[in-house]
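User: Reviewer 2 asked us to show a designed sequence for the structure in our supplementary figure. I'm pasting the structure tokens here. Could you produce the per-position amino acids so we can include them in the response letter?
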């Protein structure tokens, strides 16, 4: 079996072709991400597959679904992973080019408990990674990732007997058939579908068309160089392009999908982006009318309006704020028996009877179109305007090395806690509440709040601020948090901030 990996290798060398390269920081909280070439090589990916195979074997799991996203290198990366899985005696069911939710769906459709989807999701070109699970619909959590990391980096792995490979022909058609086995939308709607030249372009427009939606495709041609913008519905460049196309075509709505199709962003008919947490609140209002005392889970980056919304209160709906991350939220949805979970990044999780509990951007788009179709002629901007007013930021991510980001957040949290204990202000007001469930979320008495946490999948921090009072109060919180962050020289430039 492959030797233990190292964390650096000289490129263009014999060692690079004979020794597994696996940088330890690639093992994130709930999936794995590396820069291909400098942080992991194909032998390293094979070693990862073998380590995953050993972990699955220890849990009594013999079968695993795999697939890959549309990048120039994703197929060979997947094949290296598959070699490692086969070497440990696992039976591999390969669905080929796919969205991540297709791989999760395959766990149910094929009766296969394990999943290893090769994707870097919305990360820029050059990144690769794997989303893994063995207990559908949930995916790996931090404990699973720590165990996998220990196996891959330190254990002596031995080959096992058995193992088989099966290619599941045309599996995306099975996925599409299931999602479209229902009545068409009750109202004729027009939608712009933006895919950033990523994997979703191969599948999503056709599915929504089959349900009776008129589609205007935007950047749906597959091109792994991502020539226009990164396929990331939180990226303001993608949102601006989507907004312009919605206005140009006169569409009722615009959807933006990320690189592996498990996230969905939304733009109104006026070209106004709606952050995913507000779309979640709109969906929660809609669903609470059909499901009595429904439960919802939202991440700590999400708007505080879930806790105060009068319509949700009147419907007896319950909302639980939980850790950011697709693995954390879908696990919490199952744990609480909630109807749905919403994450500000654009992951939406619908439990039966709407979905199967995992994050699926296509199911999300269908749910939003159902909401709009049933709105008795109201536009999306009118539904949005009916929400209580708040001012919120996009998700902003200053660079911070993987090796330092958690300590930087901890130092910030201690500084804010010290201020609170001393009765000092933050953002020009007293510190009313500190929540440490995931990074630090700090609130003022007027409901203005800010969150800082370490990114789970990139060398970055995550900063979000919101105020139900005014844009200026939101900016007060941002400026105050940024001043504290700038005390650390390891915090770099933001990927995006307010405005264009």
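Assistant: Here is a per-position design you can include in the supplement:
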């Amino acid at each position: 079996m492959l030797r233990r990996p190292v964390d650096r290798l000289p490129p263009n060398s014999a060692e690079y072709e004979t020794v597994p390269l696996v940088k330890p920081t690639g093992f994130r909280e709930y999936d794995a991400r590396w820069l291909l070439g400098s942080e992991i090589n194909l032998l390293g990916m094979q070693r990862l597959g073998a380590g995953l195979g050993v972990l699955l074997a220890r849990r009594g799991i013999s079968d695993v679904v795999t697939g890959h996203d549309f990048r120039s290198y994703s197929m060979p990366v997947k094949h290296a992973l598959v070699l490692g899985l086969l070497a440990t005696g696992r039976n591999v069911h390969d669905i080929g080019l796919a969205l991540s939710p297709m791989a999760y769906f395959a766990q149910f459709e094929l009766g296969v408990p394990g999943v290893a989807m090769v994707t870097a999701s919305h990360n820029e070109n050059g990144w690769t990674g794997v989303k893994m699970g063995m207990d559908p619909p949930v995916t790996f959590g931090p404990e699973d990732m720590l165990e996998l990391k220990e196996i891959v980096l330190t254990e002596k792995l031995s080959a096992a007997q058995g193992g088989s490979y099966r290619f599941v022909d045309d599996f995306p058609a099975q996925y599409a058939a299931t999602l479209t086995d229902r009545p068409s939308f009750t109202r004729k709607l027009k939608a712009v579908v933006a895919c950033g030249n990523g994997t979703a372009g191969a599948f999503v427009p056709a599915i929504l068309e089959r349900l009776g939606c008129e589609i205007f495709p935007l950047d749906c041609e597959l091109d792994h160089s991502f020539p226009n913008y990164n396929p990331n519905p939180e990226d303001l460049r993608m949102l601006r392009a989507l907004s312009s196309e919605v206005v140009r075509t006169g569409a009722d709505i615009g959807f933006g999908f990320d690189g592996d199709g498990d996230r969905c962003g939304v733009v109104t008919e006026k070209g106004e982006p709606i952050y995913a947490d507000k779309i979640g609140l709109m969906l929660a209002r809609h669903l609470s009318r059909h499901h009595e005392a429904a439960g919802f889970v939202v991440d700590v980056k999400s708007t505080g309006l879930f806790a105060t919304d009068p319509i949700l209160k009147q419907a007896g709906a319950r909302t639980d704020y939980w850790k950011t991350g697709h693995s954390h939220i879908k696990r919490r949805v199952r744990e609480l028996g909630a109807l749905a979970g919403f994450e500000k990044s654009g992951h939406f999780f619908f439990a039966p009877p709407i979905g199967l509990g995992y994050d699926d951007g296509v199911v999300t788009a269908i749910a939003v179109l159902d909401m709009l179709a049933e709105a008795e002629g109201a536009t999306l901007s009118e539904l949005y305007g009916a929400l209580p007013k708040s001012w919120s930021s996009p998700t902003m991510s200053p660079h911070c090395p993987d090796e330092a980001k958690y300590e930087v957040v901890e130092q910030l949290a201690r500084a804010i806690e010290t201020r609170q204990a001393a009765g000092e202000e933050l953002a020009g007001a007293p510190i009313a509440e500190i929540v440490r469930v995931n990074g630090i979320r700090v609130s003022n008495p007027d409901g203005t709040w800010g969150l800082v946490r370490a990114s789970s999948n990139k060398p970055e921090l995550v900063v979000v601020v919101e105020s139900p009072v005014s844009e200026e109060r939101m900016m007060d919180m941002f400026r105050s948090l940024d001043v504290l962050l700038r005390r650390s020289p390891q915090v770099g430039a933001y990927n995006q901030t307010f405005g264009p």
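For the response letter, you might also mention the following. The radius of gyration is 22 Å. The longest strand covers residues 91-97.
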